[in-house]
Automatic annotation (TrEMBL):
It is a multi-pass membrane protein. Keywords: Cell inner membrane, Cell membrane, Membrane, Transmembrane, Transmembrane helix. Residues 5-412 form the TRAP C4-dicarboxylate transport system permease DctM subunit domain. The chain crosses the membrane at residues 45-66, 94-121, 133-156, 168-190, 210-229, 236-254, 266-291, 312-341, 353-378, 390-416. It holds the Pfam family DctM. It comes from Dysosmobacter acutus. InterPro entries: DctM, TRAP_DctM. This is TRAP transporter large permease. It is found in: Cell inner membrane. PANTHER family: SIALIC ACID TRAP TRANSPORTER PERMEASE PROTEIN SIAT (PTHR33362:SF3), SIALIC ACID TRAP TRANSPORTER PERMEASE PROTEIN SIAT-RELATED (PTHR33362).
Length: 422
C-alpha cells in the first residue's frame, strides 16, 4: 500500500492527470497484493459506475449546460442585481446570491464558476472592482453550489458510503446559507475599506420586470427539492426533472434556445461528465487496495494515539483535509478519503450526516486554495489575472469559520434533515 501511495504522489508531481495517476497507482497496488486475480480490475472499474444514484451526476451537469444556453443563468443574475443594487458592493453581493440561487439547479462548483463568472466578472471589472477581487469572490461563491442541494459531490459521497442522498441534501441547506452570508460579510468589509459606491435603489418597475423575467427560473429549485422532500422521487429522478424543466423553460418560455442547440449541449455535458466518471472508475482500484489493506483501521489507530477526544479528532480531520486540498483535486480527495474517514466517524460516534457535511465543506474549500484549486483557476482565467494575485484568503477564512461552527454545533447540520426526513 505504501508503494501505491508513493506512486500516486510521484505521478501527480510529474503532472500526470489525477484520474490516470490514481488508476495506474491503483493497478500497482493491486499487483502487490497476494491472492488477487487480475479479473478484479475490470470488475471494479465497471461496478464503480454501475450505480443508479451516480446517474444524477451527468444529469445535473446537463442541467447546468441548459441553464447557460437557455438564458436561465442570465435572468437570475439580472434579478439579483436589481434587488441588491442599492447595497455597497452590490455586484459582489449579487455574485454571491446568484451562486446561492444557482445551487438549486446544478450542484456543480465548476459549472457555477464558469457560468456566473462569465457574466459577473466582466461586469464587476467594468464597474470598478479589481479583477483580482472579482475572480476571488466568484471562485469562493461557486463553492456554495455543492453545499446547498442538489449537489454532485453529495451524490458521490452517498454512492460511496451508502448514506441517504436526500438527507445529505437537507443537511447542506443551513451550512450553505451560512457560507453565503459569511462571504457577504467579507464583501461588506471590503466595501467599507475600499469605499465602494452605493447606487440608487431599483424602482419597483425595474424589480417587477426582473422578477417577472426570472420567476420561471426561481421556481425550479422549489420543484426539484420539494419533489425529494415529499418522497415523490429520488435524487436521480429529481435530476431528470431538473433537465426536463430547464429544457421546457429555455425552449418554450424564454425561447433563448432551440432544438438545434441540444446536440451541442449534450456534447459539452458529456465531455464535462467524462472527467469525474473516469476519476470515479479508476479510484475504485485505489479504494479496493485501501480497503483490502485495512487502511481505515490504521488511520483510526494513529489518530487515537494522538487523542481519543472526539473534538480533537474532528479538528485533526479538518486540518488533514485542508492540507490535502492544497495539493489534490476535490473529486480525487473525496473519492480517496470518503471510504477512509466514514468508518472513523462511526467509531467516534459522530452523526453520519453531520460528519459528511464537514468533510464535504472542507473539500470544497480545497477547490479554491492554491496551487491546485480548480475553481480558482477557472475564475482567474476569466478575469485574466495570475492565480497568485486572486483575493481568495479572506473568503477561505470566512468559510473555515462556518466549518468550525458546524463542526462543534452539530444541530446546525442535523436540524433540517431531522425535521423534514426523520
Amino acid at each position: 500500500m505504501l508503494i501505491m501511495f508513493l506512486a500516486f504522489a510521484i505521478f501527480l508531481a510529474l503532472g500526470m492527470p489525477a484520474a490516470f495517476s490514481m488508476g495506474i497507482s491503483g493497478l500497482i497496488g493491486i499487483f502487490t497484493l497476494d491472492g488477487v486475480a487480475s479479473v478484479v480490475i475490470p470488475q471494479k472499474i465497471f461496478m464503480a459506475l454501475n450505480s443508479f444514484p451516480l446517474l444524477a451526476v451527468p444529469l445535473f451537469v446537463l442541467t447546468g449546460e441548459i441553464m447557460n444556453t437557455g438564458g436561465i443563468t442570465r435572468r437570475i443574475v439580472s434579478f439579483c442585481n436589481s434587488m441588491l443594487r442599492h447595497w455597497r458592493g452590490s455586484l459582489s453581493h449579487a455574485n454571491i446570491v446568484t451562486s446561492m440561487l444557482m445551487a438549486g439547479f446544478s450542484g456543480s462548483a465548476t459549472a457555477d464558476a464558469v457560468s456566473v463568472g462569465a457574466i459577473m466578472i466582466p461586469a464587476m471589472v467594468e464597474d470598478g472592482y479589481s479583477p483580482e477581487y472579482s475572480a476571488g469572490v466568484t471562485a469562493a461563491s461557486s463553492c456554495i453550489g455543492p453545499i446547498i442541494p442538489p449537489s454532485i459531490i453529495m451524490v458521490l459521497y452517498g454512492g460511496i458510503t451508502g448514506l441517504s442522498i436526500g438527507k445529505l441534501f437537507m443537511g447542506g441547506i443551513v451550512p450553505g446559507v451560512l457560507i453565503g452570508l459569511s462571504q457577504m460579510l467579507i464583501t461588506v468589509y471590503f466595501g467599507k475599506k475600499l469605499g465602494w459606491p452605493k447606487y440608487p435603489r431599483s424602482t419597483w418597475a425595474e424589480k417587477w420586470t426582473a422578477t417577472k423575467s426570472a420567476v420561471w427560473a426561481l421556481f425550479a429549485p422549489v420543484i426539484i427539492i420539494g419533489s425529494m422532500l415529499n418522497g415523490i422521487c429520488t435524487a436521480t429522478e429529481a435530476a431528470t426533472i431538473a433537465v426536463m424543466y430547464c429544457l421546457f423553460v429555455s425552449i418554450v418560455i424564454y425561447r433563448d434556445m432551440s432544438l438545434k442547440d441540444i446536440p451541442k449541449i449534450l456534447l459539452r455535458a458529456a465531455l464535462n461528465t467524462a472527467v469525474p466518471c473516469l476519476i470515479i472508475s479508476f479510484a475504485s482500484l485505489f479504494g479496493f487496495v485501501i480497503t483490502r489493506e485495512n487502511f481505515a483501521s490504521i488511520l483510526v489507530g494513529f489518530l487515537f494515539r494522538i487523542s481519543t477526544d472526539p473534538n480533537v479528532v474532528m479538528l485533526l480531520v479538518i486540518v488533514l483535509l485542508m492540507i490535502v486540498g492544497l495539493f489534490v483535486d476535490g473529486t480525487v480527495a473525496l473519492i480517496t478519503f470518503a471510504p477512509i474517514l466514514f468508518p472513523l466517524g462511526e467509531t467516534m460516534g459522530f452523526s453520519p450526516i453531520h460528519f459528511a457535511l464537514i468533510i464535504l465543506m472542507v473539500i470544497m474549500i480545497g477547490t479554491i486554495t492554491p496551487p491546485v484549486g480548480l475553481q480558482l483557476y477557472v475564475a482567474a482565467s476569466i478575469a485574466k489575472v495570475p492565480v497568485t494575485k486572486v483575493v481568495i484568503w479572506p473568503f477561505v477564512i470566512a468559510m473555515l469559520a462556518v466549518v468550525f461552527l458546524c463542526a462543534y454545533v452539530p444541530a446546525i447540520v442535523t436540524f433540517v434533515p431531522g425535521l423534514l426526513m426523520p
